[in-house]
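Researcher: Here's the sequence for the chain we discussed earlier.
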Amino acid sequence: MPKPPVIVRTLPALRRALADLRGREATTALVPTMGALHDGHLALVRTAKRRADKVMVSIFVNPAQFAPHEDFGSYPRTWKTDVAKLAAEKVDLIWNPDVATMYPDGFATRITPEGPAMAGLEDKFRPHFFGGVATVVGKLFTQCRPDFALFGQKDYQQLKVVTRMARDLDLGVKVIGMTTVRERDGLAMSSRNLYLTPEQRQTATILYRAIKDASKRLRAGDELAAVMAAGAETIAAAGFTVDYFEARHAETLAPVSSIADGPLRLLVAAKIGNTRLIDNAAV
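Model: Thanks. This is the structure I predict for it:
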């Protein structure tokens, strides 16, 4: 039976645990999560284990990145299963603070990112989101002081925001983005996939298929605006409400007019039923 990870929930306990982890100048990696762990998270953990001597996973459902109408209260919480999965991966430490620890009474300091956080993608539809993400990730970085932090590319704009924040604020963390882990039919793994009905789950594969088709057409030389319009129509015809289906510069997330403006990243966000899904891929 695998040795369970050290679980800490208070800042003094975290500091003591970190001192133990670094006792022999070990390098450390952090995988920030909100729990409800799936194989995508575990892929991050496995990569972290290859990059660093000791691996930490944070589990904290961050209220600051949910708007009042969003799913904070119903967001899946699977603590016992999560701990078992992390024990099987031989994670060294789980940082599991509560809301009062992360945002104590009188908390009044927030990080307001710009640059890729204002690209007109997720920020257009969830204007609160990246401020909440940047603030909590900034806190996690300063609390855990990892050498590396691993994030999935599924949340591509978030990855760019966090990377820029760590660089701009000299946080001493190397942010590593990992390739999106997918189900066998191509659907990007996400904790929110648990919300899908069987019929919606089957339909959801259209997102990745539309991205792959658009990428193929762009590489073949088709006109960008026509390709993206056709992809959005395909997604909408499958029953989704499309927030965006766009081609952007892969590093800056600035709008582009042709494949010559690349490297390009195709990004989509769409809602089916009550579930909002995002995905992306390189061209």
